[in-house]
Amino acid sequence: MDEVKVVVAHSERATLRVGDVFLKVDADQARIDVEVEAMSLAPVPTPEVLWRKPHVLATAALPGTTLGRLGGPSTASPAAWAAAGAAIRKLHDAPLPPWPGRAGRSIDELTKELADECELLVTNGVLPADLVTRNRQVAEAALRPWTLAFTHGDLQIAHVFVDGDEVTGIIDWSEAGQGDALYDLATFILGHEEHLDDVIAGYGTDIDLDVIRAWSSLRSLLAVRSLIEQGFDPFAPGCEVEMLRSRM
């Protein structure tokens, strides 16, 4: 008998695996609708949608294994990382979806959100002031005009599946939409910057490394408290806080 495996679970959503079927349960039906639409538009391999009902999406498992996970080593080859970079570039070059995404918040919105979150991190004693101040300075380089691209919005390496040196699929599209391509790249290499050259080999060289680093700092600053509230540990080795400390 197939077991029910909890892949991830928190107050907003949960993903379960039963055999070769993934069930995503989301309190926000709009995120499921976005996910299905984004997968239908994305020019890269995505899971097969088996069925969809209110608040639940069923998809087929992808062949292969994830490229890695945040906080853990990746055993994937340089060619696999380059293939992932090429797939990401193909997504970013695709026609825009007709809705804004997580990576598409306005500069004014991000600036206010960053300021508010940095204040909370310090006043609540979550992170030391010098660490927050330094990363806020780094993060400001991301707050500039950008050309909109088709972005995944939550492109963690655990969401990219490979078989050998081939990308077999990308999962979890609920945050997809119009946004800054470099946000996706920053999310993708978070905790694995040693593979950045391989990713660039597949993606192309016309990227600003300072902006990628800025997005890494900005994304991590905004994520720390939320991750703690959801039961995750951003202080674990290779995760968000370690990245923030590397900027000191």
Automatic annotation (TrEMBL):
It comes from the Bacteria. Pfam families: APH. InterPro entries: AGP_Transferase, Aminoglycoside_PTrfase, Kinase-like_dom_sf. Residues 42-208 form the Aminoglycoside phosphotransferase domain. PANTHER family: AMINOGLYCOSIDE PHOSPHOTRANSFERASE DOMAIN-CONTAINING PROTEIN-RELATED, AMINOGLYCOSIDE PHOSPHOTRANSFERASE-RELATED-RELATED. This is Phosphotransferase. It comes from Streptomyces bobili.
